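User: Continuing from earlier, I have the next pair ready.

Assistant: Great, send them over.

User: Here they are, in order.

Assistant: Folding the first of the pair now:
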Amino acid sequence: MSDGVDRLIQVMDRLRSPGGCPWDAQQTHETLTAYALEETYELIEAIESGTRQDMLEELGDVLLQVVFHARVAQEHAEAPFDIDDVANAVADKLVERHPHVFGEADAGSAEEVHARWERIKKETKARESVMDGIPVAQPALARAQKVISRAARAGLDVRDPAGVGIGPQLLALVARAQAEGVDAEAALRDATRDYEAAAREAESASAPTARTVTEGSPT
């Protein structure tokens, strides 16, 4: 199985090296960002409505983005890394976050496994909030769902005046926004930011406070 990956790495190296492709040679992490996003969306489309061949092709395009970025990263003057570093880092992460497989922890239910994953991730990344790490550039609907999901899994009591919506209601709201000259994406981003702020506030309020030890009090 690794023969194909090794071949792809060699092809990418040839394209990037002197005498290779001028376009590939001038790319940076920043210029490749849009392609990573585009290829991810195309993979999702292939999974949802394409054929097996479509999915195979789009998975290859996503893999190419990883290999391309890793090849560019090799050339960094101060902090280079390569595809092996990338693979080992994610393998280490999987082992660390699956103590029920690679350690002595009990597996429990799928929900318990997910909760353990989030807890370990928060500890290892030194995150202060369950809301940390949600990409701001993520599409508004997806980000809204992620924020609400994180708040629910953390058991936060968040004031939610919007209630729960479903497909037809969302479509009707978009149509209303269009009629009223409102940018629906921007409006949802604003509402999601407000919800996130309320979630962070609820999280802070529910966090245990350190007991103050005064002079002369028992320790």
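And the other member of the pair:
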Amino acid sequence: MSAAPFDYANLLAPGLPPAAVKYGGFPKYNFVGGHNDSASIPVDGLRAAADAVLAREGRTLATYGLESGPQGYLPLRSFLVRKLKTDAGIDCTTDDILITSGSLQGMDLVNQLLIAPGDTAIIEQANYGGAITRLKRAKANIVGVPVDHDGMSVSALSNALDELAAKGVKPKYIYTIPTVQNPTATVMSEGRRREILALSAKHGVPIFEDECYADLTWTGERPAALRGLAGAGNNQVIHIGSFSKSIAPALRLGYLVASWPLMGNILGLKTDAGSGALEQMILAEYASKHFDTHVKDLRKRLKRKADVLIEALSAEFGTAAEFEKPDGGIFLWVKLPDEVDTLRLFQAAAKAGVALNPGVEWATDQGYSKSRLRLCFANPEEAQIREGVAVLADVCHKEFGVPVRGRNVGRS
């Protein structure tokens, strides 16, 4: 005789996010999530790295922290010291780096450190959905600043800071994704970065810099990070990054850069006994020898998929789909005609096997984002991208009359 299910309905804590649905597999045409190109995962290299590092240091798994301390595996932090100096112009030591369980943990730690209910955070108007939902969950007041072709608007940021100061409000931070912004894929110029640093210093508001996509510019070149421009040891900028987009999302490894004593405050909040040790060991072994070569190949693959997506959108939607060609990354931010509600399109497309991110999930302003959507192109194969965009166009036409068949597209 089976017992009746226990009822937790009246026991749940208040304010929980909506319950998740059971996983049913990926849709046929999957344009959501920060997934990577499956063919680019360096399986053989990671296997060889695992064998080598376990043979050499496997017994250190007997201790929390791998005898490297609570900030993460020392060889991985040493690799990051070199990488950040070369790629981002950041001067730091291994003591300034904390290995996290993905960059999302870094984001959570910074929010725990700085954000209390009622606090204010300034972020880009079009922004990473995870950053927006976390700030809402923390009961923060969110001020969105528009993004142009060069990243966060300096004039709009200046106005927002002045208006808040006039009200006696000092934001806890300015959050920005300067290199391959999510979702717009813009790359902020060095001049713009220096202007934002100056505003930050003028108002005494720190910058929270998210550089998760910075390795994925098509050319491999990028401006110095905001933290690098701010100068060594300056905690004006807290910096986070990730290996999810450059190596593999499922590794769940990211990093946070901050100087002491602030790092000590952050470390006091990381009470998980350390991020995945085996993953850190394997990644450090692999990345120290192969990172640059691997990422160079990955960029080529992603650039080709971006081109395929752009070609497909142009063929299927014609002038009805507006976008700027990205300089890197894994997604495209698309504007459809005003009559298209992309939340409704998202629901209708899902029934046809197409998953997309409606704009309202990726912006602070619902009016601005109502007819926008984000399409991630890294994971689908090129044929799936073409087929999926064709299906999406059919669904959009049935729901909204967009695109207009026979006039602005080649299909009839």
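Worth noting for the second one:
DSSP finds twelve helices and 14 strands in the chain. Residues 407-412 have pLDDT under 50 and may be disordered.
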